[in-house]
Amino acid sequence: xxxxxxEALPTAAKEIPPELQGLRMTKQRREVYSVxxxxxxxxxxxxxxxxxxxxxxxISLATVYNCLDALVDHGLINRVNFDREPSRFCVNxxxxxxxxxxxxxxxxxxxxxxxxxxxxxxxxxxxxEVSELELTIRGFLPKGS
Length: 145
Ligand SMILES: [Zn+2]
Fold this sequence. Notes:
Low-confidence stretches: 3-7
Number of strands: 7
Helix content: 25-40%
Shape: globular
Number of helices: 4
Strand order of the largest sheet: 6-5-7
CATH superfamily of the largest domain: Winged helix-like DNA-binding domain superfamily/Winged helix DNA-binding domain
Mean pLDDT: 87
Order of helices and strands: EEHHHEEEEHE
Structural class: alpha+beta
Bound molecules: zinc ion
Strand content: 15-25%
CATH architecture of the largest domain: Orthogonal Bundle
Largest sheet: 3 strands, mixed
Number of domains: 2
């Protein structure tokens, strides 16, 4: 149930095509996207910046912000907001909710059980169309998970 694997997405920078959903993947965008693919812990822009700098020391924070904006605008990643914290970025595009472990602070992606959708568990008027889903559950994971 807790999973960050996202089988359908490319997993390494070398697998990212030169253009994704109409967005030209510049070296910087590719690196930012790759960082998000490799560690799906919903990092902030500053955390992405720190990780990208390991391979690209000359990149600026402004460039990282621009790359993240371009990736969000083209629907390749989602910007997610938790409380009043800085925005975080999520590469998982399948419908999911977030679970924040209160002990570690780590944010996990939770997928729906097979065949279940958000409209099945909420008392919405008939015919309601859900266009966006942003739901965070907080709690404690069982020991050893
Ligand atoms: Zn997520």
